# Entry
Amino acid sequence: MENPYEETQPARWERMPSWLLSQTAHHAARLVADGFASAGARGYHYRLLATLEDSGPASQATLGRRSGIHVSDMVGTVNELAERGLVERAPDPDDRRRNIVTLTAAGKRQLRRLEKPLAESQEALLAPLSAEERQRFTELLSRLLDHHNGRTGTLEAPQH
# Structure
């Protein structure tokens, strides 16, 4: 005979914040990846295009720091976007050993296209929460991440 307690009570670890965050992060990553895949893109593409639009042209190393994309993934991401004409790479006039990456008009259009599946994935992820709960949840996550990254202050929550 099965234990009815197993059906009604979650395991102790299933209510631990670390477990809940990791499982939610897994769902978030899948939703975002699926949304971008439907637009023929990856998360790194969006992050790099958005970083270029927000911060302007920069070296690959600077873009890596700004976007959080590891240097080992940056070259491949820039190559993919350059092949599609979404970014241009040119030697830095101040230091010919490095390249400056610039967002193209086609890259700006692609960024606008990627915003729809990104917004839809955020909506799906946060569906059970009210608008106020979403804002508060995002603020709390930002505060946790800031703390663990050694930053002070809270980042402004995106309005998705």
Summary: DSSP finds seven helices and three strands in the chain. The mean pLDDT is 91.
